[in-house]
Amino acid sequence: MVSAKPLPSVLTTEEFAFLVRYHVEVVRRLIRRRKIKAYGNPKRIPCRELERYGVDLGDAAILLAGRKGPPEPQLQVDQPSAA
Asked: 1-19, pLDDT tens digit by residue?
């Protein structure tokens, strides 16, 4: 089990998109339309915005702690041909 660190006070666009299960571009579009409150550049979103999208803050901390980065590319190993 992953221990849940406290949720940060502000989230990046990518973290917010992961937690509300939206694509990053959708979140950016909602920020431009001022449907999501965000500050600064790069955009920082207060974690209280998660509640507007039905995400429990306790669950969000657990999900964010268990989140893995992008998968590493797999190297293709050439198999010797049987001649």
From this structure: 555 578 889 999 999 999 9
Quote the Cα angle for 78-72-7, to 5°: 170
Q: Is the model's pTM score more than 0.85?
A: no
d(Cα 37, Cα 81) in Å, to the nearest integer? 58
d(CA 47, CA 53): 11
Three-state SS for 9?
coil
DSSP conformation class of 35: S
The two structure tokens encoding residue 60: 């969000």
